[in-house]
Specification:
Distance between the termini: 39 Å
Mean pLDDT: 94
CATH class of the largest domain: Alpha Beta
Helix content: 25-40%
Shape: elongated
Low-confidence stretches: none
CATH superfamily of the largest domain: K homology (KH) domain
Radius of gyration: 18 Å
Largest sheet: 3 strands, antiparallel
Number of helices: 4
Structural class: alpha+beta
Order of helices and strands: EEEHEEHHEH
CATH topology of the largest domain: GMP Synthetase, Chain A, domain 3
Strand order of the largest sheet: 1-2-3
CATH architecture of the largest domain: 2-Layer Sandwich
Strand content: 25-35%
Number of domains: 2
């Protein structure tokens, strides 16, 4: 895997991935940034959130759980001195689906956190990472709309 980051101006950078995608990064105005893109440290959290969500959804799909939506909300704290690493990260899953089994959800989150999510395992070297979840039932109107399109 490779990545390339090209400085544009001030704090603006373009990150290019070997999969052919580009993302804009920028710093805060207080440091000369223009707020054109996410901060690099925010991207670390997004990467971890995407990694763990991917794992959890794949595990739940294999367990034949009828997930209709999944949102991952992450809150994090950083050290007050340099290097300002993440020290606390909390991952909250909001999983929506029909008759989801809480044991399957808990197992999927645990497997992601302890075995599969490389990003979380790396960040866990400096941060305490906690998880919780809530299970929601889908809105019946959405289910009706989905069945009408099939």
């Amino acid at each position: 895997m490779q990545a390339r980051i090209k400085w544009v101006e001030n704090c603006v950078m373009l990150g290019h991935t070997d999969s052919g995608h580009t993302i804009v990064m920028d710093g805060p105005p207080a440091f000369g940034g223009n707020n054109f893109g996410a901060r690099p440290m925010e991207l670390l959290l997004l990467g971890m959130g995407g990694c763990t969500q991917f794992d959890v959804l794949l595990i739940l799909r294999r367990a034949r759980q009828a997930v209709t939506d999944c949102v991952v909300e992450i809150t994090a704290e950083r050290a007050s001195t340099d290097p300002k690493v993440f020290t606390q990260i909390h991952v909250h899953f909001i999983i929506t689906g029909q008759e989801l089994n809480p044991r399957h959800v808990e197992r999927a989150i645990k497997l992601s956190a302890e075995k599969y999510c490389s990003a979380a395992i790396m960040l866990g070297a400096t941060a305490t990472i906690t998880h919780d979840y809530e299970i929601r039932r889908p809105d019946p109107a959405v289910l009706i709309a989905l069945s009408d399109t099939e």
